[in-house]
Amino acid sequence: MAKPTYGDGSCEKLPSGRWRARIRLDDGYRNPWPGRTFDTRKEAERALLEDVTRELRAESDVTVAEAVAVWLDSNAALAVTTMITYRGLQRKIEKRQFASSSVSQLTTQVLDDCWRELTDNETKLQSSKVWSLMKCVLGTRLQGVDWGKGRTVEHPKARRLLDPAEVVALIDAHPERYRIIPILAAGAGLRAGEVLGLQRRHVDAGVVKVTGSLIKGAGRRKPPKTAAGVRDLAVDASVQQWLDKHLSEWVGSQPEAWVNTNSVRIDTVLRHTMQSRIYREAREKAGVHTVGVHDLRHYHLTMYGQSGSTLVDLERRAGHSNLKSVQIYAHADKTRDAELVDRMTPLLPT
After folding, report:
1. Based on the domain organization, do 102 and 179 belong to the same domain?
2. One-character DSSP codes across 94-148
3. What is the pLDDT of residue 4?
4. Are 186 and 133 part of one and the same domain?
5. How many helices (H) and strands (E) are present in the chain, helices listed first?
6. What is the pTM (predicted TM-score) of this model?
């Protein structure tokens, strides 16, 4: 039978029915327990995990701060805004006493002390963000330790689904020049950065081509984090009508002309800060409080999902790279359940 592998080793069932565990090194496999076998695969796996952990810790004679720094340096290709966030968390780690602790000496008890030091000096949210980064960096080196429940950043609760009247009110409250921003968020499911990053060449008859987004704090575009972010999105006739009107009145004729520009220079892209200010003013005017542009995207993708699309369709539309991310758009209700049942072929003849 095939040998179950575990990244740094394997467990193999012998002809006798017993199990052997071996660890993989650069020059091949070796048996850390010469002449010893195990009654069950679970026992072999447990012994393998303990040995792999020792091997990893033998290579982990660096401090927590050094390990985080090396990890960030090796992931320099991350998005600029993501790296800025991580560097800020790195500075918070370097201020703490545990930053000088050797990674090889970290145990569950030591991690508990690290968590207490964090929460004594940072807010719960900031502590959770730091903890999530540390777990990401050190998790593979610290196999078998308990990082504690409820310490990492939790996924946000499901967003409140806007009703159509609220969406229309938000769109109408925008200045006509910038009305296309909420229209594309609610009518095509674009993120704010994707809307701001659009150029004339990205808009075709009935299709919006998403190939990147505008970088916060900079007047240039960046590619999506994953290939899934590059996508062609069909839009309905009403959205296309607004796009045609917007392009003719507010956008230059060059292919690289920005779709959204500031009110002073038509050749200068509208930045995130100004877009946020415009949106906040429109939100107050519409009386729809604590609702962001992302809630409009959420509205579109939820409506798209309830129109009969599959999870794969929804994943592609949203630009996500995994199905788990699109489950947030699955708002179930009794009316929808009845509609789906009505579409099914009756089980029995009537």
Report:
1. no
2. HHSGGGGSBGGG--HHHHHHHHHHHHHHS-HHHHHHHHHHHHHHHTTTSTT----
3. 45
4. no
5. 13, 8
6. 0.61
